[in-house]
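Let us work through a complete example step by step.
Step 1: write down the sequence.
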Amino acid sequence: MKVMAKPIFLLLLLVLLLPAAALADGEKEYRAAMESYRKLNESSRDRQFRDHWDRLIGRFLLVQKKNPQHRRAAAALYQAGNAARDLYAISRRPQDATRAVELFQSVADKYPDSSLADDSLLFAAQLYEGPLVDRQQAYLHYQSIVDRFPHGDMAP
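Step 2: predict the structure and record it as tokens.
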């Protein structure tokens, strides 16, 4: 009987410790992505290359995908949207602004309880109102902030 108890105990211990390790990895990966973002913003040369931005956006998306319940998951998706918005500011390609809108919308849809959800809708609305020149979508996003997050910090 004692021979069976040891493997069961080890298996139980492993099952209990794996989620904690995954949470630590999520935090570590998020911080590494944020550090990459900081370095990219500081490099006037690297900022000009799309592949650096695409790689950064991919890093944030991977953090969120691998750790969708992690406390940083919404922030990772939000930062992917910010990076796409920053890429648009350099490229002026509408598809980059559209990508940012989609990422920001995902934050509000997947993480409606996050403090970043209403911020994300605001940024999406601003992109619709400005570079994407779609006033109807801008209005709908602004209205969504009021309807979905009446007590959020972005509501009027």
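Step 3: interpret the result. The mean pLDDT is 89.
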